[in-house]
Fold this sequence. Notes:
By secondary structure, the protein is of the alpha/beta class. The chain has 2 domains: about 10-270, 3-Layer(aba) Sandwich (Rossmann fold), CATH 3.40.50; about 275-455, N-(1-d-carboxylethyl)-l-norvaline Dehydrogenase, domain 2 (Orthogonal Bundle). The chain has helices at about 35-40, 40-50, 70-75, 110-115, 150-165, 180-195, 200-205, 225-230, 275-300, 305-310, 310-325, 335-350, 355-360, 365-380, 385-405, 410-420, 425-435, 445-450, and strands at about 25-30, 60-65, 80-85, 90-95, 100-105, 120-125, 170-175, 210-215, 240-245, 250-255, 270. Helix 9 (about 275-300) crosses helix 15 (about 385-405). The longest helix has 24 residues, at about 275-300. D-mannonic acid binds near residues 217, 286, 289 and 359.
Amino acid sequence: xxxxxxxxxxxxxxxxxxxxxxxxxxxxxxxxxxxxxxxxxxxxxxxxxxxxxxxxxxxxxxxxxxxxxxxxxxxxxxxxxxxxxxxxxxxxxxxxxxxxxxxxxxxxxxxxxxxxxxxxxxxxxxxxxxxxxxxxxxxxxxxxxxxxxxxxxxxxxxxxxxxxxxxxxxxxxxxxxxxxxxxxxxxxxxxxxxxxxxxxxxxxxxxxxxxxxxxxxxxxxxxxxxxxxxxxxxxxxxxxxxxxxxxxxxxxxxxxxxxxxxxxxxxxxxxxxxxxxxxxxxxxxxxxxxxxxxxxxxxxxxxxxxxxxxxxxxxxxxxxxxxxxxxxxxxxxxxxxxxxxxxxxxxxxxxxxxxxxxxxxxxxxxxxxxxxxxxxxxxxxxxxxxxxxxxxxxxxxxxxxxxxxxxxxxxxxxxxxxxxxxxxxxxxxxxxxxxxxxxxxxxxxxxxxxxxxxxxxxxx
Length: 460
Ligand code: CS2
């Protein structure tokens, strides 16, 4: 038996469930990229908001290509479990905010209709860093942004909205990019200027793209997780369940084109400027995560909690966060970066969360600029080097040799070719980070850096 609206009543009493009448709520949000992260984060906040009485914020999820999530969620009427893990017994909650999942490659018209529907006010995105289809210089890569990208679907729907005299929408990016709202707005405008120039002025007048900082550690769900959750659900199978940590944070720029859920009533922060939170999160949490991933894999570890328990890597993460990243951040008045670093180390150490280093290691080319290179550049401008990040770069170069298995990165071919052609790490770094290299533009190794660490055969 699967978890579904019909079987909901038979769940054990300790499992929390939606307090609202799901069938009586309209869809107000269309979400592109309905993976585990969205289910444990924005959909979870939205469910909580509806639990407090907020109405009509059901979510239609969209997968661009893969039918996997639709197959998991639609037979369950969109219901799924969020399991918060920290000790032995996870806290379980059934989330009810997802109405259905559409697969864009199979039913493109339904996706356009969902975004164009009068009740839809927000189009949110977790399409990963590479899903924004950017060139190395940050412009839209028109080859990638083709008819199966969110740009296409949103544009087609906005045309319909404008022609029908409907209001615009808020485009809400929830991916780990610096200044994600401004970036999305710029890319979207480039897409429109090329494909629907008549829509540019309407978009500027009727749509907004707030920036957001989103945070919750969500490892990929395993078969073992699914088996454990089925047992806790009294035998009901949940193919769409997600496992996460108790912590979550969402800081949102208060710049909406129309109505929005009262997310602030359930823990989100609506602020005028997201930048200090976003910068701290990307450079400290994600920066340390990526360093632990590449250095941890090199040292033979599998999970984040194992890597951070290794004294050398613990020291590396501490140094990166406190001595390299934190000095580049101007905190918001209520933000304490030392306390933030303490909390991050504790979160990484959560032994109940099997967060694989290899999951974090993927798509390095898309992550490294905002996680490491901006920190390196800002320190270089002050005449400082960053030995921890340089060591992490060395470990990334090592990863690119195929040392940890096939390289999962949209630029894999280019990156591995550079590393194989340049066995000397200094040459490899020069080819990657300078001139027309795939990561050129944010930082380039200085003379002092060259004397510091990054030799991938060096010991950690
Ligand atoms: C991780 C993030 O996979 C990764 O690259 O660093 O997904 C991280 O777990 C989240 O950003 C935490 O909010």
